Amino acid sequence: MRVLIVGAGPTGLTAAIELARQGIIATIIDRKEEASTLSRAVGILPGSLEILTPSGVTERLLAEGIKLRALKLFHGTAPKMTVSLQGGHPDWDYGIALAQDRTEAALREALVAAGGDVTYGCALTEMQQDDERVVAGTQNGKEAAYDLVIGADGIQSAVRQTLGLDYPGFDLPETWSIADVEAVNWPHGETFTLCMLEGGRVAVVAPLEAERYRVISNTEESLATLPLDLEVTQIHREGRFNISIRQVPDYKAGRVFLAGDAAHCHSPAGGRGMNLGIADAAELARRIIGKSLDGYSASRHAAGAQTIAASERIRRLVTSTGPLTRAAAFAAFSLIDRSPALQRRVARRFLSS
Questions:
Q1: Strand-pair partners of 177
Q2: Cα(139)–Cα(166) distance, integer angstroms
Q3: Where are the domains of the chain?
Q4: Series of mean pLDDT values for 10-residue runs along the chain (353 residues)
Q5: Which CATH class name applies to 43-50+67-97+174-242+320-353?
């Protein structure tokens, strides 16, 4: 079987690895000239670790990543809730924090070990399909025929756009910001830290590696917004971005299938984005091997819709500006902080796929 995978991020690489483990070496292309060096998504949850264990990727992620063992929430500088993740999952009672470029490096090495590879600097330019094959053209003027095509090429997916598929949803009005920094004396090293501020502003800190952190805010200056002391010694990257909440109605169009951000996107709230794409890829590969592709779209659309809804509930809660909503939220956080049973429930939800 000839399979083309467009996009060599975590979703595309996972699909390629899972197919290669069953003897199908896919062609995987990416329009970037070389592998990304951006940290991008940082949270890896137990569901992804389970998927990536047979290929050996999980072993490397565990060795390189920071184990997230707790969630902390502040109102300004005042601590309101600490949730231990212990007991949140039977095998991994923690998440893994690791810069996405290092996650992708581990995935690429596993793919090469399984007999595959990535062709960079190769953008998809056209596709035509019939009942038996898909003919794909790339920027170098070459065409090739494939049995199936997987579009794992992100929010601006060339595969989705070439198919003319709608990507319904909405864009958040505010500009968000991000900073990847080195810092010392941060006392919350193995935690995911969220600060809720007045006016619906938030700032989040997640570790990337020893003394390196990611700061995100729904303002234009993440470092300036963070109310807690973070002694920055070096700034690796700062940037601003906008967020869309979208999902395609159907992940399948003939012999072409969408996965990851090509099919769905949402805010960082909940830390599910990359993990959802990895789950898409694993299920799609399994269905290709098992010749049960008809159920892929319904299954993954339902999972995507559930994840988007959960992410939106979290985002709207922590960025709320209504005094009654905020008062109720802080009361709930205080109750959780005092209740081991509620903490275990939150831990299970956070670590679930």
A1: 217, 240
A2: 24
A3: 3-42+99-171+244-316, 43-50+67-97+174-242+320-353
A4: 97 98 97 83 92 97 94 97 91 91 96 96 96 94 95 97 97 95 92 96 93 95 97 95 96 98 92 91 98 97 96 94 95 95 93 79
A5: alpha beta
